[in-house]
């Protein structure tokens, strides 16, 4: 199973064309966006404000905002359920 986390593109890094600064729940970090190119030198259909699905530091796909928000709700819900289980075990 692969867990992809949605993140919002904040900035395309001009000095590193395969990197973008991405925000995931307010935490910003550089993400490799090279896999989103059609070819090695092809155009990149990505801009600040776009949402991407991230796995181990790589953008796997561009997703729409509605899908991103639903995924974030699921991921944070799983975390909340896990915390509740730990608390119940005391």
Task: Give your account of this protein's structure.
By secondary structure, the protein is α+β, with helices and mostly antiparallel strands. The chain has one helix at 65-89, and strands at 5-12, 19-24, 27-32, 51-55, 58-63. It has one domain: SH3 type barrels (Roll). It has a five-stranded antiparallel β-sheet, covered by helices on one side. The radius of gyration is 15 Å and the shape is elongated. It starts with a strand and ends with a helix. The mean pLDDT is 86.
Structural class: alpha+beta
Give the ordered list of helices and strands: EEEEEH
Biggest sheet character = 5 strands, antiparallel
Number of helices in the DSSP assignment:
1
What CATH architecture would you give?
A: Roll
Shape: elongated
What is the helix content?
A: 25-40%
Uncertain regions: pLDDT < 50 for 5+ in a row?
Answer: none
How many domains? 1
Might you state the CATH topology name? SH3 type barrels
Mean pLDDT: 86
**Oligomeric state as shown:** single chain
Rounded to the nearest angstrom, the radius of gyration is 15 Å
Report the top-level CATH class.
Mainly Beta
Tally of extended strands? 5
Short description:
The protein has 90 residues and is α+β, with helices and mostly antiparallel strands. The protein has one helix at residues 65-89; strands at residues 5-12, 19-24, 27-32, 51-55, 58-63. The chain has a single domain, classed as SH3 type barrels, CATH 2.30.30.140.
Which short descriptors sum up this protein?
90 residues, alpha+beta, 5-stranded antiparallel sheet, SH3 type barrels, 1 helix
């Amino acid at each position: 199973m692969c867990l992809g986390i949605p993140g919002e593109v904040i900035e395309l890094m001009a000095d590193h064309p395969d990197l973008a600064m991405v925000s995931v729940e307010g935490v910003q970090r550089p993400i490799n966006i090279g896999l989103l190119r059609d070819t090695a030198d092809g155009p990149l259909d990505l801009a600040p404000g776009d949402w991407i699905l991230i796995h181990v530091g790589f953008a796997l796909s561009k997703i729409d905002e509605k899908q991103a928000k639903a995924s974030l709700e699921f991921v944070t819900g799983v975390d909340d359920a896990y915390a509740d289980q730990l608390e119940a075990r005391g």
